[in-house]
Amino acid sequence: SPAQKLVFNRVNGKRPQVLPQQVSAPEECYTLAHEENVRFVYEAWQQVEQQLNGSRSGESACGPVQYVEKTPNTGLKNFVPIDLEEWWAQQFLAKIENCS
Prior knowledge:
Layout: H1 32-56, H2 84-99
Protein name: MCRI2 protein
Keywords: Cytoplasm, Nucleus
InterPro entries: MCRIP (IPR029428)
């Protein structure tokens, strides 16, 4: 019988939930320093977003300013963003095909 083909389905653009029996990769270990760094960046970004939202509604006169280009870069007019999830799926499939 032919080998089963992996299918990556997206629901509303979200990644599908991975069931534990499907995951064969070893569990990643995070150090305390890593967790502290992630928490610091997350909390700092939450503050920036709150300040940006406050400045949009006129609550704050100072704080972060969101950068918006006034004149678009002509060198980027043909830029096409990469679908990172699709790229990872292709890499994953290529790795499986090379192993079999």
